[in-house]
Design goal:
Rossmann fold; 2 domains; six-stranded parallel beta sheet; alpha/beta; two-stranded antiparallel sheet
């Protein structure tokens, strides 16, 4: 059974930082576990070994602009930020991995400033005013473009060309549902790996199974040990 593994890079990095917070900016480690956790899907619970078609990793180049913070007035070179250095190193490391294809979108040309959701809620509720904001509470509001489109196109292409019999997607939202429905109509087994995160209600009807191969984040491990998680934990149900 030829299997293609598709990884939403932005989602993977967020979950990786939750699972291994001490390696948050370790690009070599992130590339290593991305490849390892993807390859782990090839072994079926029955012991059957599936064939790897390719691992696709979708992301965007990091922000490399110089921008002036509207509060402090300081010019910040984001090409030297920890995030930019990590992202660039991760992409280079993935290029060296066997059977890995890096698919890059792009960032929006226009970049504004935003703040965290909690701070924004406080502003809306009148608990704080804009005059209370500190310079370090602002960050560039950059958005990825072309990533979801590339995922959808590749899912459709793999299914319609009969290149694989199984697609495993490491992601956490429902944007891929139309492409997943097409793949299933073409007879492709479609499995979601949410990396132990919960998935939107009603999503199960559009996929053939859910399975996570990465370690569970520490907080979820503690909750599961105390019996606070439901019996059918997302990531273990309907394993194929």
């Amino acid at each position: 059974m030829p299997t293609a593994l598709l990884i939403d890079g932005g989602y993977f990095i967020k979950r990786f930082c939750r699972i291994e917070p001490h390696n948050a900016y370790n690009a070599q480690r992130a590339a290593e576990v991305a490849h390892r956790w993807a390859i782990a899907h090839l072994k079926h619970a029955s012991g059957e070994q599936r064939d790897l078609y390719r691992i696709f990793f979708y992301d965007c180049p990091p922000l490399r602009k110089k921008m002036h913070n509207p509060i402090s007035g300081l010019c910040i070179d984001y090409s030297r930020s920890d995030e930019a250095l990590f992202r660039s190193s991760l992409h280079e490391a993935l290029k060296q991995k066997r059977k890995v294809a890096l698919r890059l979108g792009h960032l929006t040309d226009f970049s504004s400033w935003t703040t965290g959701s909690r701070t924004f809620d406080d502003l809306l509720k009148g608990k704080r005013t804009f005059g209370d904001l500190q310079a370090d509470e602002l960050q560039p509001d950059v958005r990825q473009k072309g990533v979801d489109m590339r995922i959808g196109i590749d899912i459709s292409s793999l299914a319609l060309k009969r290149q694989v019999r199984q697609i495993i997607l490491m992601a956490g939202d429902a944007d891929f549902v139309p492409a997943a429905k097409l793949a299933r109509r073409e007879g492709v087994d479609f499995v979601l790996d949410p990396m132990w995160s919960s998935i939107p209600k009603g999503l199960m009807e559009h996929i053939d199974g859910v399975r996570s191969t990465c370690p569970r984040p520490v907080q979820q491990q503690q909750r599961a040990h105390r019996g606070q998680l439901p019996g059918a934990i997302p990531g273990t149900a309907r394993v194929t």
